[in-house]
Amino acid sequence: MAKHDRRRFLQLSLGGAAAGLGWRAAGAAAVEGGKLPEGKMPTRKLGRTGVEVSLVGLGGYHIGQAPDEQTATRIIRAAIDHGLTFMDNCWDYNEGKSHVWMGRALRDGYRKRAFLMTKIDGRTRRAAAEQIDQSLRDLGTDVIDLMQVHEVIRASDPGRVFGPDGAIEALVAARKAGKIRFIGFTGHKSPAIHVAMLEAAAAHGFTFDTVQMPVNVMDAHHDSFERRVIPAAGKTGTAVLAMKPLGSGLFLRSEPLAKRRVSPTECLRYAMGSPASVVITGCQSMRDLAQALEAAYGSRAITEADRKAILARTAPAGSGGEWEKYKVSDMFDGTGRNPHWLESATL
């Protein structure tokens, strides 16, 4: 996404975050004096891989939005020290800064304690291979645990990824060479495109290890990933990675949340109550991390009745997809504004 679009997004997100500060008093108290909540981080199996990962994943885009690298390092290492092992990132986040900062933070023994996931934009074999190698260099690691095709948001993407000299060839070659362990894909635009990607994989005798998608309190009301893609992924043991549990901060500006009908913690716990292996949430401050830990450390698991009650409260705002900007606008379509990312390794 171009710089001015990222700034627009952050202004909207931070406006929402300010509206939600009253709900985050517990998180603020938790980090006072450098302390974070204590508890046991739940883990889940990563689908057909069988690998155990933390229920909460640390979002890579927001890491690059921390005030400085020292803060980013503190967040990453504190997260791992508190049981959060799943690290999210992407080749293009913050013009590569997110990769560099996370790579440095994972030094001094932290890399071996983390499950490192990142994403590439390349749709051709050459572009994907170059971006994989650049990711390895910038993250300072010999192997990436999970590599995903980023922003599968166009109807043409499945055909390009699985076509002649498509990205899947580079990913399979990298896995064979030991550069990556598992392969997945992500997207935020349309569940129909996700299903088409899974179907394209099956037609080529390939099974994805993971699929990343929005899973949140608004999704069920409009063109739902949770309702359409999760059942399809379950048929092949493909692990679901839930993202945007707070709609990248935008949900905090919606009427149900503005009137405190649903809190940020309930939003996080709603996603945690889904079949997802991991719920990825952005943390650009220790307060954000405290909020995520508190939600995960909750004394009781959220029930299906709880989730239905939350959906009832968010239905008035969610029916038209107004607050899911990633579905109904191009605000989050980084590769749409930077189409060269699909063809090259130049940011």
Salient structural properties:
alpha/beta; globular; disordered N terminus; single chain; 347 residues; 8-stranded parallel barrel; two-stranded antiparallel sheet
Question: How would you characterize the overall build of this protein?
Answer:
The chain is 44% helix and 13% strand. It has helices spanning 3-19, 25-31, 60-63, 69-81, 97-105, 125-139, 157-162, 167-176, 191-203, 225-234, 255-258, 264-272, 286-296, 304-318, 325-328, 334-337; strands at 43-45, 52-54, 56-59, 86-87, 115-120, 144-149, 180-186, 210-214, 239-243, 278-282. The strands form two sheets. An eight-stranded parallel beta barrel has the order 3-4-5-6-7-8-9-10, surrounded by five helices. Strand 5 (115-120), helix 6 (125-139) and strand 6 (144-149) form a beta-alpha-beta unit. Helix 6 crosses helix 8.
TL;DR?
With 347 residues, the chain is of the alpha/beta class. It has helices at 3-19, 25-31, 60-63, 69-81, 97-105, 125-139, 157-162, 167-176, 191-203, 225-234, 255-258, 264-272, 286-296, 304-318, 325-328, 334-337, and strands spanning 43-45, 52-54, 56-59, 86-87, 115-120, 144-149, 180-186, 210-214, 239-243, 278-282.
Binned, the helix content reads 40-55%
User: What proportion strand?
Assistant: 5-15%
How many helices does DSSP assign?
16
Rg over alpha carbons? 19 Å
Average of the residue pLDDT scores: 89
- The strand order across the widest sheet is 3-4-5-6-7-8-9-10
Structural class: alpha/beta
Largest sheet geometry:
8 strands, parallel, barrel
Order of helices and strands: HHEEEHHEHEHEHHEHEHEHHEHHHH
Query: How many runs of DSSP E, i.e. beta strands?
Result: 10
Task: Based on Cα principal axes, name the global outline.
Answer: globular
Q: State the separation between the terminal residues, measured CA to CA.
A: 10 Å
Low-confidence stretches: 1-28
